[in-house]
Amino acid sequence: MAVDLRPEPAVAELARRTAEFVREVVVPVEEQHHGVARTEDIRTDLQRRAKAAGVFAPHVGVGFGGHGLDMRGRAAVFEEAGYSLLGPLALNIAAPDEGNMHLLEAIATDQQRDRYLRPLAAGEVRSCFAMTEPAPGAGSDPSALTTRAERVAGGWRIDGRKWFITGADGAAFTICMARTSGEPGAQGGATMFLVDGDNPGLKTVRHIDTLDESLYGGHIELLFEDCVVTDDAVLGEVDQGFRYAQVRLGPARMTHCMRWLGLARRAQDIATERAAQRHLFGSRLGELGMVQQMIADNEIDIAASRGLILQACWELDQGGSASQATSIAKTFCAEAVWRVVDRALQICGSLGVSGDILLGRFLREVRPFRIYDGPSETHRWAIARRVLRRHDKAATR
Amino acid sequence: MAVDLRPEPAVAELARRTAEFVREVVVPVEEQHHGVARTEDIRTDLQRRAKAAGVFAPHVGVGFGGHGLDMRGRAAVFEEAGYSLLGPLALNIAAPDEGNMHLLEAIATDQQRDRYLRPLAAGEVRSCFAMTEPAPGAGSDPSALTTRAERVAGGWRIDGRKWFITGADGAAFTICMARTSGEPGAQGGATMFLVDGDNPGLKTVRHIDTLDESLYGGHIELLFEDCVVTDDAVLGEVDQGFRYAQVRLGPARMTHCMRWLGLARRAQDIATERAAQRHLFGSRLGELGMVQQMIADNEIDIAASRGLILQACWELDQGGSASQATSIAKTFCAEAVWRVVDRALQICGSLGVSGDILLGRFLREVRPFRIYDGPSETHRWAIARRVLRRHDKAATR
Amino acid sequence: MAVDLRPEPAVAELARRTAEFVREVVVPVEEQHHGVARTEDIRTDLQRRAKAAGVFAPHVGVGFGGHGLDMRGRAAVFEEAGYSLLGPLALNIAAPDEGNMHLLEAIATDQQRDRYLRPLAAGEVRSCFAMTEPAPGAGSDPSALTTRAERVAGGWRIDGRKWFITGADGAAFTICMARTSGEPGAQGGATMFLVDGDNPGLKTVRHIDTLDESLYGGHIELLFEDCVVTDDAVLGEVDQGFRYAQVRLGPARMTHCMRWLGLARRAQDIATERAAQRHLFGSRLGELGMVQQMIADNEIDIAASRGLILQACWELDQGGSASQATSIAKTFCAEAVWRVVDRALQICGSLGVSGDILLGRFLREVRPFRIYDGPSETHRWAIARRVLRRHDKAATR
Amino acid sequence: MAVDLRPEPAVAELARRTAEFVREVVVPVEEQHHGVARTEDIRTDLQRRAKAAGVFAPHVGVGFGGHGLDMRGRAAVFEEAGYSLLGPLALNIAAPDEGNMHLLEAIATDQQRDRYLRPLAAGEVRSCFAMTEPAPGAGSDPSALTTRAERVAGGWRIDGRKWFITGADGAAFTICMARTSGEPGAQGGATMFLVDGDNPGLKTVRHIDTLDESLYGGHIELLFEDCVVTDDAVLGEVDQGFRYAQVRLGPARMTHCMRWLGLARRAQDIATERAAQRHLFGSRLGELGMVQQMIADNEIDIAASRGLILQACWELDQGGSASQATSIAKTFCAEAVWRVVDRALQICGSLGVSGDILLGRFLREVRPFRIYDGPSETHRWAIARRVLRRHDKAATR
Asked: Which stretches make up the Acyl-CoA oxidase/dehydrogenase middle domain (chains A, B, C, D) (predicted)?
């Protein structure tokens, strides 16, 4: 009953096997493809091998073929998966599918689960989550949502533009967030819709060329134009979309952190390897003080990130919104992971910026995490507001 | 059996009562004396009230009048005590007494416990720990130890100079670390001796004037000159001093962090209060973005420190040396606490540097923590070395 | 006609002599008094010796006994003076007297110059500048000015409260900024008044206890209560006080930077001395990589500060307001000097926090500079606003 | 004769015209090609237009078709050129050609100048500089040089491997640094050789894929194998190569800084444009405090970089080695430019990581500058060593 930081044996064992699988199976594939899987063959082959290794879909309920890990369990396992850029894809826990499974498991009807969650959890299809809009639409400020859904006979008609919709290329379905009451700028009500990928009202405008490239299915600009869906496409209840978004956002924020934390550890290992091998000015690189400082700061950043993630996961598992804890963890991790990869690259010198090793690729991949899922500034703003609100409440007592 | 971050109810309740006691009883005394207790009256009065509140000596075994908290329990309670500069003194958990009690409980003989630990745990006497020496003696590098103890009939004669011996002024006894084999520079063997304060061979050279002033009994330069002690003054076994130092150091490092973390929270509360009250350029101070950023960064630093402390405490409670975890936690906390107090002071502007509030005092008190108990550089060096050693070991497997 | 960074020979020579004077005469006095001159004897003796050395009052016009240095010349000489905490006092270029002389030379009438500037420039009297008010009065936001002056027969009556008025204790006169039109919050008009120290309407409320202690005459809270002055007490023109404040503020901001930059160099020299002497882990301290990093970062911060100061001084000497350049230089220097002193102290370890050397004192002295004369946040806000205004102007062209 | 920061009128006018040319001619081409010129057509067309605009080859002597700018003049003009990634290519002042022209002008024979410098200065051919070697060869530590040149009848035979040889693909000639006496690890003697691009002993091993891509001609791994050159291929004197490298390195280090400083200003302008246009939470983005802080910090970093560059250039123009000043400027600028681009990207949010604007590209381009031309750590080490040497010298006087 005392504080305990040791994962349950089954979780520890799954994490250990995941670590082994990633090192032995995934890393070689990742290195061969320079960190980016660009074909279905790579994806399905990796997933097949993850299934064989018994490490597939660890977060999904047992009824859907997974291990039913809670957030604390995910923290242990996803970090190991994130050790390779392709680990999450192999385990079917990459964004945005992982978050979508979480959401569907939590709020979908049985029919919707059979139709959408089951094949998704099995890796047979992929999905996406269409919330972010180009300025001045919904981004850091969700209440700016401009995409609209209006009632039509037997269903809804969705119109609006979305961008940075990860994984949309090739997705079997999209969870689309659309305004069903109120005006942009006021909160009002939003609703989530399950839109099939072949709906004629759903158009891919373009692939957005981005600094990061490893998220399978790209970042896409989508257009919903006279996009009609039937009533059973409503996910959860009408006008409750902002609330459901929170159901998805908090955990998704943390699983991002877990995966990137794994990559930070990888970067640290690559740099340590280099620091151990390379000699300069008559010493091992790793015995030079400024290099030791970078190695130590990496170690500190990694440990602090892990502690913050665990705190937030524990709160989520207790059933709270954990919004302060997830904002804190996300802000710190996004910046810490960035620092770790940057220092690792610096330790490796010219080799670090070359394609001979993967650190330049990692740097590109982790940079946007300080922006995606809420920029650091938005989170800091929210954190400070909660501190002040806490103060105001205490003061008026 | 899963990961659990909730303290046991008894610990949580003790932490709650400690928080209440500190706010209601200790803070007013602290503010009256500008953070520094300079007389025995203040100390004994505070301790009397702590006993009355049932929050005294929480770390000591029940047999010695305490609550027998393990390290995780201390983490919860000491942070609350540290919320005031005088909280640890009131609870009898201030450095160096707290660490000495821990050490005596772990390795002293029953007789030594009765003679030294019992009155110390009751707050009847104070103590000190004499390890650090002026350059080129033992400091960041313990193996440089120059103070020597040589065998004489029926005991030992100690000679050497120590400095920065916290609390030595008025201490009833000193635990003195002296070399009993080997030469300075090589590790060799050291032994711990219990030296009574009235031993004629123990002289106070001077009070060292320091930036920090709140540790009761000051920082003292001591001279051991023909300081003869009997055989029963040996604490533990001869030549095992470096090992015992580790028994004391790891936990003491963490209790420092816990106390200072409490002070960081206090600084944050003072700054938040100010940010909530003060208006500037037509807004509340706390609604200006750059102030929000400082408030948020404080919140992040506090949360990350707490996570790292807990991790190290958990490892210590499992019986490990936890040397990597305590180095990481100490380095991060010492710097984080410093940043938090510095930002809090900045938020308060001119008021912050004035004696009208305590932040200037806090800044002075926390600065040395980046040096005491191992400077950040020494810890980073040790952290990096362990990372490399881990790598080398894995590579040769 | 090309870019030239070499000071004129006469300036270079004065800087050289100032450096020599400070090292040989001032530093010993500073060390004896731990950086704080608390008596008139110390002040007058130092100034007598500065006169004898021909380095006194370098910034004042030749007609008033000085060397008539422009801002670039001051940059060279004041940095040398600032090498000791007491150097500026010795040369009569300490705040606030130095800025007051600058202001009086620029806008006072001949009579006012004879009565106020002449004895001030000679070091016979001291002065202060009463602008800052406790919240919610004039501070970061000058337009919040609440002290009022109202017309009475033959003069003005001043009422209001000021605080953090440096040097007010013992000052022969105060330059008081008071609102003569408009309401607090709107800019309106302010006027500067020369108020004699023995005016019965001028009361010293208290010495404010502050983290810094080296500015002669302390930081004082003043009360103007029915403080009547005659018409010839008006400095410059009525309602032009905010404009004159700019005349004083830009240069005063830079001379602060120059002096503190000198102190940063001193801190670096103290740390370098230590790094050269002390051995640790078998190396000179200064050969350990993390120490080298701190030494190098200090060197970089010092060089960058000097460059920014020179840029601003050059702009001021060209007759511009140089408001962007002085904001940039002040913000950077205040933080850089702080970092330098902090790193120097860290290099010196326990010795650094002890009173055996002056770094702890320096740390206390430089901290408030990030707040005094406009907190970094206010300057950053102003800098960013000017960038945006520049953009808006370019965009509408 | 006083300190003067205003460039001569002719230089100011050339800088103005360069700025205009870059904005009107180069930026559109850069945007069209996403910052990377991949064909000779683009290069020659840009250079043709630069010649027409009278801004071509500003650093080369008038006799070679340039404007003969000294280092201070280059500081003014190159910054303007660097405002676009393609500006330096257009003006024929990109690395490594610019540094090679500098070197050839300084030490080549008249014949060598006619044969190599003249067509290079005219943009008719390109060149490269082959010094860096893969580990454990010459990199941060030049004395590790392993490429060897041995005397053969009428000339020399060069053998060795080089990498990160910028611009080597398509270069008409290479300046190759090879050891002509001593052993790797000891300094010994090196010699520079002019090797024609069609020498059969010079082989391109591969294009190194790097994070940055904008330097024309790529980063190449080269193999010198039985590469025989005649005696007149020796540049300067035998065994003086390390000395000549310094002739090239100091100025080349500064011209890198100038160009990247221009790019930092561009990033700041892009971010400012965005901050001025975009609205969030009811304000202009640029009126939110955290954004203002980033804009202000950019402005500070840009100004400080410029000051440090100017100081180093002035010292170089006085004929000194300026090694401390160039190390300081290079270290600060490389990190400052990186911070500026990173903050600019952060301000732009998702747009910033997209290819819709160039900031992601800029981030990739500037990252290696913290490694190329001496990693920050090597420079800091050198800076600190010089500080200690300065101290030791003063102490023994």
From this structure: 128-208
